[in-house]
């Protein structure tokens, strides 16, 4: 079964280039194109793709608003942002709007293909440069994005068990419950239980929020900053 993809971008050259690349992948099927967020919302409902590659800066309706509407109306469709913007003022709102991942247009073609396949499986996808952008303190106003839960960064180890900390670190890599279970040599249902416990303790609603929270709280070595 092929992964059905809807491509959303207002630049014709970009559309043609990515369309050509997608057509070369044996497991991808480009089911449609949209040139702005409003078209993306309409075509998402009509075509029911598995993955939407969503640009952000577009006329009529931007990609963040479109992602939010799609998440509300078609929660099974996964939005993977593909943009040129690498700043927090775009990253955080896009992910909070429901996008499963955030990729930059300078990504290598093979990396984009793997990101699409992994996002299709439900795994969080972040461009290599995005994690460092998220770790950089923001000077933006508080109104720019919704704040993360008021959980002290240095209180993670006190809130979570050692095993839950291990699971959280693996979540930040975009790993699925099955992959985490394999890495930790435990049952998948055990990982699911740990994830539920983590979300409850940190007052988070989903895996994406947990991964983003951990990116803020944990350094590149996986230790609390």
TrEMBL record:
Residue ranges crossing the lipid bilayer per the database entry: none
Domain Response regulatory span(s) in chain numbering: 4-120
Keywords of this entry: DNA-binding, Phosphoprotein, Transcription, Transcription regulation
GO biological process: phosphorelay signal transduction system; regulation of DNA-templated transcription
PANTHER family xref list: TWO-COMPONENT RESPONSE REGULATOR
Keyword Oxidoreductase: no
Key word Iron present: no
Official protein name in the record: Response regulator transcription factor
GO molecular function: DNA binding
Ranges of residues in domain HTH luxR-type: 153-218
4-aspartylphosphate modified-residue sites: 55
């Amino acid at each position: 079964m092929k992964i059905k993809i809807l491509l959303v971008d207002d630049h014709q050259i970009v559309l043609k280039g990515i369309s050509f690349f997608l057509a070369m992948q044996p497991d991808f099927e480009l089911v449609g194109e949209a040139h702005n967020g409003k078209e993306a919302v309409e075509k998402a409902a009509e075509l029911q793709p598995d993955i939407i590659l969503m640009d952000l800066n577009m006329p009529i309706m931007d990609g963040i608003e479109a992602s939010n509407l799609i998440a509300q109306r078609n929660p099974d469709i996964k939005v993977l942002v593909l943009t040129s913007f690498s700043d927090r003022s775009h990253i955080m709102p896009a992910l909070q709007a429901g996008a499963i991942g955030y990729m930059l247009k300078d990504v290598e073609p093979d990396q984009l293909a793997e990101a699409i396949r992994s996002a299709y499986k439900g795994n969080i996808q972040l461009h290599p440069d995005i994690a460092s952008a998220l770790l950089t303190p923001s000077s933006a106003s508080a109104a720019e994005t919704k704040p993360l839960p008021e959980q002290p960064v240095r209180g993670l180890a006190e809130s979570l068990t050692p095993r839950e900390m291990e699971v959280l670190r693996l979540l930040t890599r975009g790993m699925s419950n099955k992959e985490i279970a394999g890495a930790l040599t435990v049952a998948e249902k055990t990982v699911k239980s740990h994830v539920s416990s983590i979300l409850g303790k940190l007052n988070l609603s989903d895996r994406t929020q947990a991964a983003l929270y951990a990116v803020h709280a944990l350094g590149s070595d996986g230790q609390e900053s």
